[in-house]
Write a structure and sequence with these properties.
The complex is a heterodimer. Chain A is mainly beta. Chain A contains no helices and eleven strands. Chain A is globular. By secondary structure, chain B is mainly β. Chain B is 0% helix and 59% strand. Chain B has strands at residues 5-7, 10-14, 19-24, 31-37, 43-50, 55-58, 61-66, 71-76, 85-93, 96-99, 103-108. Classes of the chains: A mainly beta, B mainly beta. Chains A and B meet through strand 4, strand 5, strand 9 and strand 10 of A and strand 4, strand 5, strand 9 and strand 10 of B.
Chain lengths: 115, 109
């Protein structure tokens, strides 16, 4: 069965520090991968999605970047965190590339607090 | 923005009552999905309804889709305290996946 991992579970970082959140998927190949951010009490905002290694699409301009160095690895990064980067970050995979329309499977999330 | 709108934002009901939440979206879609999120956790897929379907059932869940009005509703019957969570509609537009604003449901035992 498919499993999606995210770490760390929680993170407290000072403003201006770098960030690296990692997401890995097991049990599937060539998945579409997604990064979302959820502000407190709000819906999910799509940040990035990837349909393959090295292929990243950004949904909104921001202080963050994403990379996909391996088929089942998706990394969210920042060089210098802002207070507004605080939130709950969720990684998801959504079926095989080219097979859009199916359900998405979510990781447990990382709660980031920038002080 | 292509983000869907949901109403109500918050809903509080007694255990055993039915809960209905609505989702509206802005463009044609192939299918619409509903997800549940317990506080501070990831999302769990509940049900998917395709654009050529009008109604779908899964256990105590009933979902309707009206493509002419670009809206969907989720009905939870005979609610339980364990149904307390946030519920989101979601859909693809191309490769991008959009979520609604969510409904926070509280079921009082």
């Amino acid at each position: 069965s498919q499993t999606i991992h995210q770490w760390p579970a929680t993170l407290v970082q000072p403003v201006g520090s770098p960030l690296s959140l990692e997401c890995t998927v097991e049990g599937t190949s060539n998945p579409n991968l997604y990064w979302y951010r959820q502000a407190a009490g709000r819906g999910l905002q799509l940040l990035f999605y990837s349909v393959g290694i090295g292929q990243i699409s950004s949904e909104v301009p921001q202080n963050l970047s994403a990379s996909r160095p391996q088929d089942r690895q998706f990394i969210l990064s920042s060089k210098k965190l802002l207070l507004s980067d605080s939130g709950f970050y969720l990684c998801a995979w959504g079926g095989e590339a080219g097979g859009m329309g199916g359900e998405q499977f979510f990781g447990p999330g990382t709660r980031l607090t920038v002080l | 923005s292509q983000q869907g709108e949901e109403d109500p934002q918050a809903l509080s009901i007694q255990e055993g009552e039915n809960a209905t939440m609505n989702c509206s979206y802005k463009t044609s879609i192939n299918n619409l999905q509903w997800y549940r999120q317990n506080s501070g956790r990831g999302l769990v897929h509940l049900i998917l309804i395709r654009s050529n379907e009008r109604e779908k059932h899964s256990g105590r869940l009933r979902v309707t889709l009206d493509t002419s009005k670009k809206s969907s509703s989720l009905l939870i019957t005979a609610s339980r305290a364990a149904d307390t969570a946030s519920y989101f509609c979601a859909y693809y537009i191309g490769n991008q996946f959009y979520f609604g604003t969510g409904t926070s449901l509280t079921v009082i035992p």
